[in-house]
Amino acid sequence: MGKNAIRFHFNNMFRPAVGEHGLDMAAIPAAAEAVARMHAAMCVKKEQMAWRQLPYNQQQVVAEVKQTGAYIRASFDNFVVLGIGGSALGSKALFAACCHPRYNALSAERRGGPRFYVEDNVDPDRLQSLFDVIDIKRTAFHVISKSGNTVETMSQFILVTDLLQKAMGADFRRNIFVTTDKESGLMKKIADAAGWKSFVVPDGVGGRFSVLCPVGLLSAAVLGIDVDALLEGAAAMDKICTQPTVEENPAYLYALLYTEAMKQGVNISVMLPYADALAPFSEWYCQLWAESLGKAVDNQGKPVHYGQTPVRALGVTDQHSQIQLYNEGPYDKIITFIGVEHFRNTLLIPSAAVPVFEADYVCGHSFNELIAHEMQATIHAVTTHGKMNNCIWLESLNACTLGKLFFFFEMATAAAGELLQIDAFNQPGVEAGKVATFALMGRPGYEDVARQLSEKHSASESYVFHA
Amino acid sequence: MGKNAIRFHFNNMFRPAVGEHGLDMAAIPAAAEAVARMHAAMCVKKEQMAWRQLPYNQQQVVAEVKQTGAYIRASFDNFVVLGIGGSALGSKALFAACCHPRYNALSAERRGGPRFYVEDNVDPDRLQSLFDVIDIKRTAFHVISKSGNTVETMSQFILVTDLLQKAMGADFRRNIFVTTDKESGLMKKIADAAGWKSFVVPDGVGGRFSVLCPVGLLSAAVLGIDVDALLEGAAAMDKICTQPTVEENPAYLYALLYTEAMKQGVNISVMLPYADALAPFSEWYCQLWAESLGKAVDNQGKPVHYGQTPVRALGVTDQHSQIQLYNEGPYDKIITFIGVEHFRNTLLIPSAAVPVFEADYVCGHSFNELIAHEMQATIHAVTTHGKMNNCIWLESLNACTLGKLFFFFEMATAAAGELLQIDAFNQPGVEAGKVATFALMGRPGYEDVARQLSEKHSASESYVFHA
Q1: What is the dihedral of CA A448, A451, A456, A459, to 10 degrees?
Q2: Closest chain A residue to B466, measured at CA
Q3: Which ipTM did the prediction report?
């Protein structure tokens, strides 16, 4: 499968490569029983992990997504995703990985589809600026919220329906597309009352595992990304990532090595792709890894406060920002390099039009060679500095290899949760902030919380500076 | 100075606010001697820290920058910065903080200046895509490299001079603007040979401390950003950040609290602004903090492997990605919140054009209230979860308050280096990767390194997977 191939290299996680701060090779046989238990649990829980069925059980959904996507592609100048977190990061990763790096700046002919925006914040300046650059009458909005309790998305939805109605009257309903829960939740209620047919976030598919359902697939279809190849890539990776042992299953090995490193106090995971097109993929990974494994208690309710902080970086750019720290700093991180063998363009470094003296050694090489050599050089540098790292090589970056990457990290994350014996699929720690926001925004039923908050904030403070 | 005011809140760094995992208030008096030594060193070394003079000693430079900036503003459709790391991040922070959030998508009339691009990577797809959206004949390039040894910037420079000459012949020289060392280095030699007058990176101003010299100022001038206000903000912050004690000097307190936390094993620093316009500022901070404090040895040459890994996050977006980890995960991080009291726009949440049922509690509020309440709610949540945090409130985000932020963090970083007794201004750990890249690109004089690298890579590998 040539151009869709992926290679994983894990050697630089071990002491023979990085020295005393690496993992002991003996950790792998020693973990055989734990891995066997983990695999058994992954098999038993497969049905509950509904995201694992998405590569296989969506024939009808995909047909509807393609149909709606083709309609939006042909009918609108702009496509705006209204969603946040897991409802946004998959679409951002798909867009960056598969579309032209300056897609929105291209002509309609070169784009072949609408301009694309993901509005995953409520910053008033940023949100207002969207309406400075789009004609709202010519804009389709994809509103994504499983529950309809997402205050950011609902506030955006309310603003947009008001603006649309003022601009177009009753016709505005045609510009709204909804993805939410099958039957329950506020957004479903709203969609039904307004007469919107809605796409479904299947039960058991949490936000951070939802990219391969309509949450991400509709963006892909609107952008002309090959939805079938995306799911085929995920299915191909699933075949490998359901193998029982770490010798056959890279997701299990990744999970084992990272959880072993966590036990040694390695609390940082750096995602360092050498391709601008993968920068938003790192953001998607950061939510997956952080929200799934950052847990206060294990399955027995024992306080553990697990969690590895994911860091998104970009090669080669961040070599000039972070590598001093990675090389000389603490032995507290693992770096995952992602390389792309074949970019879409081959860009040569020609001879300069002015004398460049000893800088001419680069002339005749390509930027493709340069970025590949810089990644190789950086792997060499962090390895010789004794820092654990691993590498994923993509033969090329396309819908299929991206589908493989999504599924690989979802499986690795689920497996890591089993090895740590925590619930990788809940997010109880997000509640406190949501409740406080509801209270501060005056949502009925949260008056007591509001009172506590205002008291808290009237407390006098020292160590406050005015500048 | 109303709209230019900044407030710092440090209370949530201490045990009374966050409990046992906070800092002991007694750490402050206990550190009095260390702080006094640090302040003495900061005074003695002030002259060497040439970046500390930049708010005061650039009258002539600023006049020239403004003149050139006005010329570029009036004469070109596009302005492209060719630089990486410290030569790029300041310009990106200035652009995002002070210009329209979708500036490049606006009409020339609304922009009032050229489109703006910072090309700080060598990804062939991204670089090629630039030439799909600009008319190179109508584009000014600002080439920034102190030494001229920056392989990424030099390769871009060589490509651009070739393309320009092919498009415009000898006239192309008018499209190139250079900032480099005063007298030494390859880029200076190239500029002199080509007859380009170049702006100067002053001696003693390292890349990550260079935003307030022409490296950043020319971008500001081209973008119509108030250069004087930027430097006045820095000067105003300098007044406060040269005070001798942590009771008077927020930069010293920041440095003391962060280094004390580091000694307790807190190895992560999260920069979490609640404004899209500050997201690139976080990237600038990440280089400053990582590259300055990530050091293998102290001033006595003793191995220390210090360094706190900076993490850039964005409120409210990353509440839906990272807060589960921050709240329930390990006590291994400090979160710096940055809030903006007054955004440029006030954006109301109106009534919806369709029934939204219990979601209507947000109607009549503003997005300004929402983002402020979410920040307050998140501070409350991480604090009640026992995680150290502090907060910087900007009355508004503008050139002056941004200048204050730049200078505050530069002073805090220098002070932290003194408290840790390390050299905050070198980056020896970056060499290994640079040398390896030179070798792999066939630079004369690096043949031995090239040989070692190829041997290393021919070594057979286990734990390699093909998918």
Answers
A1: -150
A2: A7
A3: 0.97
